[in-house]
Amino acid sequence: FILARLDIDMFTEIRDRYEIKNVPMIKVFKDGEMVHQELGAVTEGELAEAFKKFDIFNPEEEMRLQALEKHAEGHTSEAIQLLTKAIKLNPGNVKVAMDMCQIFLDINMLAEAAELYTKIPNKFKETDKGKFLIGQITFKKLALDTDGLTAIEAKLAQNPSDEAALFDKAVCQIAMQQYSEGTQTLFSMLKANPNAKGGGAQELAVAVVNMLELDNPTLAGELRRGLSNTLSI
């Protein structure tokens, strides 16, 4: 299909022919005949639904959106199947690859996520989504270098003020996407010692907030305020 945007002050003949008196105006033509029109501003979703009625849609994008819904509902295996089909339809759809990478991270398939991330073009890695993905991958890799949350909790049961164990606990919580819990662990360390882990606790808290700013600015704002309040005590 052809998508054209016309300035009615420049294309006066078309304006008069189709009696366009108000803008914005969307008109859909099929086989030379106008089959649909929308007056006024519409959202991207509304426009997509209008186009879909006339078979103007991207099949792999439809599968991608369906996959996100399935994953959100807990039907992750179905989501992966949909994304796999979408990738086969169009291997160049980077949104599909990035969503697959996110799902792999959500279900702790780190190796698969890391491998898929390497195949994403560099210019997309520089987007907010790309930076958020590599941030999650980095934290999950850091968590692999710890003794694991169960062993760490055992250490803290013996010594609740063990800075190394508290730091590793925060890393594991963040790797598990428990961002609020992980930063609270770091805040407790900073309240007890503003220079905890030689400044590492504060650096980690800032890194988490900066990462979340890319995907969840509301939570990032809450955690940033929490960090500021903790450091001002």
The mean pLDDT is 93
> What would the principal axes of the Cα set say about the shape?
elongated
Main sheet specs: 2 strands, antiparallel
**Rounded radius of gyration (Å):** 25 Å
The number of distinct β-strands equals 2
Written as H for each helix and E for each strand, in order along the chain, the element string is: HEEHHHHHHHHHHHH
Structural class, judged by helices and strands?
mainly alpha
DSSP summary: helix tally: 13
Residue share in β-strands: 5-15%
Estimate the helix proportion, in percent.
Answer: 55-70%
Distance from first to last alpha carbon: 61 Å
Task: Please give the order of strands in the largest beta sheet.
Answer: 1-2
Poorly predicted runs: none
Write a structural description:
With 233 residues, the chain is mainly alpha-helical. The chain has helices spanning 12-17, 44-52, 59-72, 76-89, 94-106, 110-118, 122-125, 128-144, 149-158, 163-175, 179-192, 200-213, 217-232, and strands spanning 25-30, 33-39. Strands 1-2 form a two-stranded antiparallel sheet. Strand 1 (25-30) and strand 2 form a beta hairpin. The chain starts with 11 loop residues before the first helix and ends with a helix. The mean pLDDT is 93.
